[in-house]
Amino acid sequence: MTTLFISDLHLDAERPTITELFGRFLREEARGADALYILGDLFEAWVGDDDPSDTGAFVADALRALVEAGTPVAFMHGNRDFLLGQDFARRAGMSILPDPSVVVLHGKPVLLMHGDTLCTGDVAYQQFRTQTRDPAWRKQFLSQPLAARLAFARQARAASMAHQQGLQGEGRMETITDVAPDAVGQTFSRFGIDTLIHGHTHRPAVHELDVDGRQCRRIVLGDWYEQGSVLRVDEKGFHLESLAAGTSPAP
Question: Quick one: which residues bind Mn(2+) 1 (predicted)?
Answer without folding.
Answer: 8, 10, 41, 202
